[in-house]
Amino acid sequence: MNCKMYLVTALAAATLACALTPVAAAAAEAYPCPTLRLVSPYPPGGTTDILARIVSPGLSKRLGVTVIVDNKGGASSNIGTEFVSRAKPDGCTALLGNNTGIVINRNLYKLKLDPTQALAPVREVASVPLVLYVNASLPVKTVGQLVDMTKAAPGKYSYASGGSGSPQHLAGEMLKLERQLDMVHVPYRGQGPALSDVIAGQVPIAFETTTAIAPHIKSGKLRVLATTGAKRSKTLPDVPTLQESGFPGFVIENWYGLFVPAETPAPLIQRLNAELNAVLTEPDIASKLSDLGSGDVHGTPAQFRAFITKEMPYWESLVKRSGATVD
């Protein structure tokens, strides 16, 4: 080999080595926990639990660790939210939380910890409107018919929610306030149990996301009357919004995101953010979220934190306007 050819070969080898070094280093950088506990602060069956199980396999694969979904329901998500808030900030425990536990409950409960201070946002996962639905045996097909029916029998009808202070609860209280309806609120330990009892006919009316009720709409057990989005849902294009049904300004969305204890080191938060970004952009995951009616969400920790700060006064005002209390 002449000197010129040797030099070219050596430079090429050096260039290849430099290009591969960061990749090799990244691949060798193991996540600090053999197991990541992903806490869903509700029982199985609700939207939060469904989303946790959608993202956990991808996170497990990308982090190279086992991701366990741990359902810690109760107290309108306060139990699971506080559990993660008090966990060791080592990246081994995370919360799939929502607006109920993060920004709403602080206006209804005497919390031991303020979730907006005790938790660090990693990334928003989904944001979906609610749907107003009834057991299919109820003889109503529109919101107007539902209003007329409940007005004709004050105190006879009840509506279910996954817990006091949930967006589903607040939506029900706003509906009552707007039309001076006398309906009884029946709180459950999560949206899953609430949904089960509406299907069974124990409680005839509820609000929920399309995520959890879509299979039951197809089965004919439930009937959707309206959605709470600013515009019609892509997954339910024939269902009017509450605004279209005579309730101007009635727009409520339920958002969900990943959180870790507040003192978790920034590099771990960035690592989780990067891996979750990758998971959420995988075609099958993106398709599932789209099918659930999720709109645009905030992709960086800073964007998510700014969004939460903006949401706090909105939900505080909605709690006061609705007159909602802890049942």
UniProtKB/TrEMBL annotation:
Keywords: Receptor, Signal
Lineage: Bacteria, Pseudomonadati, Pseudomonadota, Betaproteobacteria, Burkholderiales
Pfam families per the UniProt record, alphabetical: TctC (PF03401)
Signal peptide: 1-27
InterPro entries in the cross-refs: BUG, Bug_dom1
PANTHER family from the UniProt entry: BLR1237 PROTEIN, TRICARBOXYLATE-BINDING PROTEIN
Listed name of the protein: Tripartite-type tricarboxylate transporter receptor subunit TctC
Family: Belongs to the UPF0065 (bug) family.
